[in-house]
Amino acid sequence: MAEREVLQGGVANAGEVVREGAYVLRPSNPHSDVIHALFRHVRAAGFDGVPEPVGIDPDGRERLVFIPGETAWPPFPAWCQTDAALGSVAELLARFHAAAQGFEAPTGATWNRELADPAGGSAICHNDVCVENVVFRNGVAVALVDFDFAAPGRPHYDLGVMARMCIPLDTPEDAAVWGWGPMDPIRRLRLVADSYGLPPGREELVRVIEASLARGGEFVRRRVERGEPAFVEMWERMGGEARYAHRRDWFTQNRSRIVEALG
């Protein structure tokens, strides 16, 4: 029998994702079938930066082929905070969006809408690209994992989510809580847009991020109100509602600089 290893990271599935030899076993959900179909589609398109699905085991867990590499979680190590690491995540996301074009969900399939783009859209988005959901090798992003919240939306929205969490777009004090070192988030936002290959008209990205910040932590707040321990602990650690207020204020104060920096 293959040795069992609990994989670190995650909040909702903390402690429930395990590696057994060449495979990863994790809780399935009502949307696992469509996610597996998506994985097969993008892999057939030549994008290997997602897990290879095997299927759903009799015990209800989904089985995926393990992707070798490093993952990071708070306090974030220096190797995942470099410009090279950030740029590679944006490039990887662009390649995923391109590979996902033309995907048709199986009849009757449903998506998880908890983190979906409120404006809708037809592009398939990950919706939760944070450092913890990226596999790196030698400091370069090679794969995206944890597609539980994937759903159709706009590429700008998905890129904005990634930018907010991976730059991160926070005050220095709030970023430091998670182990982020001193950095210039405005310059790094330009790096994200350039690395993704975002064409002119980049103020749309600013508007998408601004709208997201205005909703400030709705998803986490719902989980906290339901009393889910992992989310309660995270909420308290990051300073609760104040963290989102700080982030909104910072963005508002720097909006003109952000628009200018994006070009």
CATH homologous superfamily of the largest domain, by name? Aminoglycoside phosphotransferase (APH), C-terminal lobe
Query: How would you classify the helix and strand content by structural class?
Result: alpha+beta
Number of strands: 9
Number of helices: 9
> Radius of gyration, rounded?
18 Å
**Integer tally of domains:** 2
CATH topology of the largest domain: Aminoglycoside 3'-phosphotransferase, Chain: A, domain 2
CATH class of the largest domain: Alpha Beta
Largest sheet: 5 strands, antiparallel
CATH architecture level-2 label of the largest domain: Alpha-Beta Complex
Helix content: 40-55%
Give the overall shape, derived from the CA principal axes.
Answer: globular
Low-confidence stretches: none
If you average the pLDDT, what whole number results? 93
Q: Name the strands of the widest sheet in spatial order.
A: 1-2-3-5-4
| Proportion of strand residues | 5-15%
Distance between the termini: 56 Å
**Element-by-element helix/strand order:** EEEHEEHEEEEHHHHHHH
